[in-house]
Amino acid sequence: MREISSQARLLPNETPRLHFRLLSDSDAEFVLALLNEPDWLKYIGDKNVHTLEDALAYIHTGPLAMFAQQGFCLSLVERIQDGVPLGLCGLLQRESLQWPDIGFAFAQRYHGRGIAFEAATATLKHAKETLGLTKVAAITALNNEASMGLLSKLGFTLQDKTALPGHDEPSNLFLKIL
């Protein structure tokens, strides 16, 4: 595992509209709803988060565990103006990928407002400037046109198809040099 200084163990902080923070137990209701939205289930898959207890377990064994191990994770993205949670965005380290990959998912009611682009741009800046990464990957379902369009807008290029553990279908693998 790569060593990360304590200073690098920070999340992207803010953009003009968005604030990033670690998930906490109080976010379980939002996580439960987000992970069961139709787009999440269609493009990311069923993570077996069907109760508040499942959501708490997801928070602790997923993002918080990754942050403790890697110094980065999926962060809760909330609106600065009122603290309303909008979705998740951040970096993941999958055993099957050479580079960390960016992940993002926002509640359907916030689609089409440029939020994912704003959050992903801040995440990539953080990856380069704070974490010192030189490359970031991205994974999408083969039919996820919206995410593929966003990745293209962010400067990612399609590399190949890849098989991810636990997924029946191959995924698109994208890469961005920072």
TrEMBL record:
Residues 18-178 form the N-acetyltransferase domain. It comes from Paraglaciecola agarilytica NO2. PANTHER family: GNAT FAMILY, PUTATIVE (AFU_ORTHOLOGUE AFUA_3G00765)-RELATED-RELATED, N-ACETYLTRANSFERASE DOMAIN-CONTAINING PROTEIN. PROSITE patterns: GNAT. This is Ribosomal-protein-alanine acetyltransferase. Gene3D superfamilies: 3.40.630.30. InterPro entries: Acyl_CoA_acyltransferase (IPR016181), GNAT_dom (IPR000182), N-acetyltransferase (IPR051531). Signal peptide: none annotated.
